[in-house]
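Worked example

This section walks through a single chain of length 264. The input is the sequence exactly as stored; nothing has been trimmed or padded.
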Amino acid sequence: MPSNDLHSIQQYFSRSARRYHLHATFQRQIAAHLADGFLGMQLPDSVLEMGCGTGFLTQELCKRFPSAAIDAIDISPEMIELAQETLPNSPVRWQVADMNQWHRPQHYDLVASSTVLHWANPLDALVQNIRKQLNNRGKLVAAVMADGTLAELHQLRQKITPGREPVRPLPSGPQLRIALAEARLEICQWEQVTYRQTFSSSRDLFRTLRRSGFTGGPFASSSDRRLSRTELEQLIQLYQQRHEDSEGNVQATFRVIYLSAQRS
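Given that input, the structure is written out below as tokens.
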């Protein structure tokens, strides 16, 4: 991952860790669904969680695999610190580290990740690295934010500021399938879910996106593409006009790919 992307992600989540932990209810929901539907019945001896954040998925891993050796890494020291506070008596080995560069002599039975892999640039290089971390027949279990997320917002933004879209789009299903195939990770389960979240207003939507980490890092605009305050206000008003229902609420689309893939 380019160093400027890395610094952007680290800086954003470090200064927003506590706010994120309080407001990222959707990420909690995704982690719970991933754990319930994709971790399976097999009990791994060793687990690596990539991008543990403040510990949403880590809690599920500890609960389901109490005897496993669990390593949890995140690029943000503040996120790690908050995760340790959330799970004060867990045997988890926490470490501040870049998932793109993580390498240890030992291998893992399970690599798990929730709403993190979409930050990778390039995605295929990270998936290749994940394969290297897995034991023979080891599994990757992940939830990935996918292309189509916030489609309504992106469409309206193009009307207000054509040619100034965010630097990188989210990965698509076909892109993710190709990356897994090239890393020789065989898909065992695959579920693509489209969520429609309701907000009390477009202003509430934008506030929630900011608090829960959807507007930081390289998926936000670079400085030459960032919205001015006037443009942002136009976007908020246009979103309300186009998408409000009879009660004044608005909805937004989020698309998540859940998967498990085994090293072949």
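What to look for: DSSP finds ten helices and seven strands in the chain.
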